[in-house]
Amino acid sequence: MCKTDVDRSLIEPRIAALVAACAAGPEGEGGPAIPVACRAMMDAVVAQGVASSEGGKRLRALLALAAYDAFGGPAAARGAMVDMACAIEVFQTAALVHDDIIDESDLRRGRPSAHRALEDWTGDTAIGRGLGLMLGDLLATACVSIANDAAGRLPNTSALVAAFLGMQREVEIGQVLDLAVERAPLDDPQALAQASLGVFRWKTASYTTIAPLQLALLAAGAAPDEARRTALAVGEPLGLAFQLEDDLIDVTGSSRTSGKPVGGDIREGKRTVLLADAIAGADDAERRELIGMFSSPSRTEDDVRRAIGLFSSTGAVERSHARIARLWRDTLGAIAGTGLAPGARTALEAACARFVPDVAER
């Protein structure tokens, strides 16, 4: 079994155990008892927390562990690093639970999103949605508890906690920006592309690639300034490339492979880099059509198919591929600049390549 498979086999059951323990609250540890009449609902929320944590690719945790090993993290403390990596994944689940409520998404990883599942369980839309919101909050506080405990068993304890909280803050800002960009005008595609890339940096790269690298470096004993500098150099271009590729999957992938319906961003009217590039590359008639389509309060299935076609015919898909390739080259250059030994460098490159498999395999 390869190292990645071994790590994944450690991560999966550990996340389930940590979520079940932390999301359930301090009852039995000096905390107040859950009233009997409320027990079934509380148990359902915790069970949904565990279920929502299942099925991910664990890219962030695997990157954190690969970076910890590459930068010489001590084997004796690797169990604590596993928990820190799990904390990142639990935070992602919290963010996705909230994201699905904001976006009114029905699916997540091919299954009903958390709030939809809880709506079905309760038979009440308002209560189910409220429970989904609180589940996201429970997971967000649970991941801090997990990270805090792990940091106490690693070097740079206070810097690790600060970095984890900084990651959360950046994502929260990114979510605000993600909503703000939906009000961005469509008649300036260059400004729209820059705004969308800014959202990618704050909302996605911050916890997907930058934080896993920064936390791994700190846990391996790197000085805080050096850890941040290296994490940004490697993680920022990688995180942007990852989100660009994810947006491409939305128009070129499938529900089976992505766990979400194809064209979901188009249905929601999201202002993406793909849309900005399509508007920039369109002729006058196509530009008016795209602006009208994405200015409308809703889009039909015909609109979705037409938008996907325009994203391709205007060269937007090709431009995204070129952006991803350029960012991947920047990532490889930054890894080379770390001075890692050849074996460690190759292992870190392989962990990073999993975020952009299409371009990395070329």
TrEMBL record:
<dbReference type="GO" id="GO:0046872">
    <property type="term" value="F:metal ion binding"/>
</dbReference>
<dbReference type="InterPro" id="IPR033749">
    <property type="entry name" value="Polyprenyl_synt_CS"/>
</dbReference>
<keyword id="KW-0808">Transferase</keyword>
<protein>
    <submittedName>
        <fullName>Polyprenyl synthetase family protein</fullName>
    </submittedName>
</protein>
<dbReference type="Pfam" id="PF00348">
    <property type="entry name" value="polyprenyl_synt"/>
</dbReference>
<dbReference type="GO" id="GO:0008299">
    <property type="term" value="P:isoprenoid biosynthetic process"/>
</dbReference>
<dbReference type="GO" id="GO:0004659">
    <property type="term" value="F:prenyltransferase activity"/>
</dbReference>
<dbReference type="InterPro" id="IPR008949">
    <property type="entry name" value="Isoprenoid_synthase_dom_sf"/>
</dbReference>
<dbReference type="InterPro" id="IPR000092">
    <property type="entry name" value="Polyprenyl_synt"/>
</dbReference>
<keyword id="KW-0460">Magnesium</keyword>
<keyword id="KW-0479">Metal-binding</keyword>
<comment type="similarity">
    <text>Belongs to the FPP/GGPP synthase family.</text>
</comment>
